[in-house]
Amino acid sequence: MTDKLTLLYKKPWFFALSFVVLAFVLYHFNYFYIGLVSKGGGYYSSFLDHYLNYPHWLQQILLKGSSSLLHLFGIDNFIYRDSVKVSRGVWVNVGYSCYGMGIITTFWAFIITYPYKTVKKKLYFILIGTLIIILTNIIRIALVGFIFSRFKTIRQHANLHHDLYNIFAYLVIILMIWFWLKENKKSNVHSGN
To answer: Mind listing the pLDDT tens digit for each residue in 136-164?
Structure first.
């Protein structure tokens, strides 16, 4: 029975199906969870809001990270609620769609469902990859604040940065996965597999 399950687990169609299903579940779980920790939601939980509010933690990492990056380059700014206020009247709002949760959960789903890696390697790569995705998001938010404060004509295309960031982030993920898979082939060649 175990051999049949292992063979099924390594079939490409099973990997593709499990990847799509897990990505869908993780993506929608995040939005369900945001509803649980948002006051005024139909299923609000004060316990989860106060002690396990990971969407808020991620938002704070993004806000403080982008604010610090702007300060590092000598750009005055401050954080107010869910925004970074940059000079010249520019507010960069960091709402739920800015967190990168869809990108992160897609990355996690691929790594979790990929059949040819150990759990330890998967957990390590999920941690490193997630940190890289968050870092690129911090850089994006800081760049948006910087560019919008310096070039008023670009502000009319304010939503374009979401699409550009998603394309960039998915390219980064593809590169990370390519290196990860390439490392897997090298270890199989050296071990004689």
So the answer is: 999 999 998 888 888 877 766 667 777 88
Please state the rounded mean pLDDT for residues 53-57: 97
- Asked if residue 6 is part of any domain, the answer here is no
CA pair distance 185, 180, nearest whole angstrom: 9
Q: Has residue 28 been placed in a domain?
A: no
Dmax (CA) of the chain: 66
- Among 130, 33, 141, CA closest to 79: 141
**Do the domain assignments include residue 19?**
no
The model's pLDDT over 18-38, given as tens digits with 9 standing for 90+, comes to 999 999 999 999 999 999 999
Structure tokens at 9: 């687990």
The total domain count for the chain is 1
Domain that holds residue 69: 54-191
Q: Can you list the alpha helix ranges (DSSP code H) found in the chain?
A: 2-9, 12-37, 46-51, 54-72, 101-113, 119-150, 160-191
Q: How far apart are CA 20 and CA 6, in angstroms?
A: 19
User: Would you say the pTM of this structure is higher than 0.85?
Assistant: yes
Least Cα distance to 65 among 53, 54, 77 occurs for: 77
The Cα 134–Cα 104 span in angstroms is 9
